[in-house]
């Protein structure tokens, strides 16, 4: 089977490498030519456009940034739609609005191609270690074709429902992740401001209902003052924009997600956009007069 | 060693039973005489006041509701302070403000008694199954005396720091629990309003960074529409009042905890105070026009 991979950034690059390591030959394209170079060692075929990748592939994985990027790669000039064969499966792991995913899927279907919205959770570390979670929306036959490759890139793979359901799940995921991140940030700052050892608080909380992956993994890094991304604040801001735009369209009040999104806006506004999203604790500390 | 137990409500009763089952004879008192009756089968000695319990005990556990209750039991007329011997250890598992715990501890110390603030997480189920988490503040020698009994009532026991540190930890715990609860409620409602199966969303999210005890345990119950408490909404409201009052005193902004507290206010206001705090999802659903 011929595999295409489009978008070789922070997430896409390690994901594509994990497919290549599974003894598959890749057809690749990325906006920045420099992103293609590391794949020479894997015998990958570099192409000049998404359309050229699609021409050579039975399945194409995409991992770009935002809705306009996915639309350009799939439906734009030099995009997949121009040359993908009937029966081509397109799996997109970008995080975009559920409504946009459904629209792109419907358009590709008109051309005989199947679209899977397959966003991931787990960040760069998960991409590198092949421990990502895939949340997938689309038709089962297409999903079964893509599944062996998801399993090369991740450890948890769920077909949640029809087209768009993967992005709905990702929006739910980001809601929970962002609010839990803020919760841990507020709690650890409460401890610090009260003169209590945050490491011991974290340890005690891990033993009860407050236990979460965020408290375990990110809580530890917050205490170590390790802001290396991970998952950058500007991407969390973008994902929460998608959540709240969707909530607006659905007529759904999300008071917690709304507050969290304001703090990620503030992170970007105060020059912390390139830091990991867990650095939100520094905002809470600053507001409490705690200096680094 | 003679053990006292004061406060035999939703939490205190199963906790005291777990000590009694460890082959200890209890000296007990509760505001409601009816609460004393189930302990006859364990050969417990029922007394007419907290002071009488303290007179017969080397260590006294208390589990009442709010700050005034703890103050009354420890320092009021007919309270522990009136008759506790020097060296008596008083361990309180109520959830109260850290500042109040420190104040009560200091007062008892003037009378030669040691006070441990030892609030718990895990709810009624944890109390019954002896799987509570104990977060303890106080002196190490007192903690070592109480520890074997905590281990009869719970599975996670942490001495976090000096007097008040247990309540600080509990405030951190409730902050994380309340915000995670709201996060899961918003996420599952987002899924429902988008026409996506919440059970599959939960399953997918458990595989990634959104994983938490709340998503696992309470998320499942939300999907089953099982509102049996557990931990009642009015108690969560009370605990968040303590968190935000403490944040006020510390000069600490807790935007996420503040929003969560408003929703638990609304639960109590709309007649849901006696339901489990996870029923907060019904508020979010109602606002989105989803009928039960």
Describe this structure in words.
The structure is a homodimer of 292-residue chains. Chain A has 12 helices and 9 strands. Chain A is an alpha/beta fold. Chain A folds into 2 domains: 2-161, Rossmann fold; 168-287, N-(1-d-carboxylethyl)-l-norvaline Dehydrogenase, domain 2 (Orthogonal Bundle), CATH 1.10.1040.10. Chain A has a 6-stranded parallel β-sheet, with helices on both faces. In chain A, strands 7-8-9 form a 3-stranded mixed β-sheet. In chain A, β5 (89-92), α4 (98-110) and β6 form a beta-alpha-beta unit. In chain A, α7 packs across α10. Chain A starts with a strand and ends in a 5-residue tail after the last helix. The interface between A and B is large, with 74 and 75 residues.
CATH class of the largest domain in chain A: Alpha Beta
> Helices and strands of chain A, in N-to-C order?
EHEEHEHEHEEHEHEHHHHHH
Oligomer: homodimer
* Number of H- or I-type helical stretches of chain A: 12
Rounded mean pLDDT of chain A is 96
How many structural domains can be distinguished in the coordinates of chain A?
2
Percent helix range of chain A: 40-55%
Specify the CATH architecture of the largest domain in chain A: 3-Layer(aba) Sandwich
